[in-house]
Design goal:
heterodimer, A: mainly beta, four-stranded antiparallel beta sheet, 12 strands, 0% helix, B: mainly beta
């Protein structure tokens, strides 16, 4: 079973509108962290936002927020007021538990977001 | 700012060649990672290292080896390159997770083509 599932291969949004990118995860650990990265066409991976499994509040960073629903095991990224520069591939990732595995991230397959003018 | 650099942005090699991909980070991070990225598959972990001379296999280590002789440098080695190793290779580094964010910082990637 996939640990990180991103069901939307591609999404379109109009400039200035909000968009939600879906991410569901699968883990039996109580302690884990969820990350979102952005990859523009230039190729670099840019860290956007983080949510820890024990964080009670949804994470926010500027126009990015993470809609964390622990019982549903979902960690959707919400981008408000989309801009043309938001057009990119977006990856959801998870870091599980402790010990040696604590260092690793497992990535989803990504969602390609296109912002239309 | 954390900087992770990779030796080449683009590389073309022939089948059977030995290929070295180099990665250097300047933030004294303990952990370094090598991923490959293929369309529709996301990023998959090849190897990671949590200390000098220490390494662990990731999800797809077959056909690859790694070397970490110095803390700042992590090399990925393709002993005998094959066409199915044509891919984008991404290096990353991070501090050891300690309850905080400790995100991974990525290099610009190396697009390797094996002919």
């Amino acid at each position: 079973a996939q640990k990180i599932t991103q069901t939307q291969p591609g999404m379109f949004v109009q400039e200035k509108e909000a968009v939600t990118l879906d991410c569901t995860y699968d883990t039996s650990d109580q302690s884990y962290g969820l990350f979102w990265y952005k990859q523009p066409s230039s190729g670099e991976m840019i860290f956007l936002i983080y949510q820890g499994s024990y964080d009670e509040q949804n994470a926010t960073e500027g126009r990015y927020s993470l809609n964390f629903q622990k019982a549903r095991k979902s960690a959707n990224l919400v981008i408000s007021a989309s801009q043309l520069g938001d057009s990119a591939m977006y990856f959801c990732a998870m870091r599980e538990g402790g010990g040696g595995s604590n260092y690793k991230l497992t990535f989803g397959k990504g969602t390609l977001l296109t912002v239309n003018p | 700012d954390v900087k992770v650099t990779q030796s080449s942005r683009y590389l073309v090699k022939r089948t059977g060649e030995k290929v070295f991909l180099e990665c250097v980070q300047d933030m004294d991070h303990e952990n370094m990672f090598w991923y490959r990225q293929d369309p529709g598959l996301g990023l998959r972990l090849i190897y990671f290292s949590y200390d000098v001379k220490m390494k662990e296999k990731g999800d797809i280590p077959e056909g690859y080896s790694v070397s970490r002789e110095k803390k700042e440098r992590f090399s990925l080695i393709l002993e005998s390159a094959s066409t199915n190793q044509t891919s984008m290779y991404l290096c990353a580094s991070s501090e050891t997770p300690s309850g905080g964010v400790n995100e991974q910082f990525f290099g610009p990637g190396t697009r390797l083509t094996v002919l």
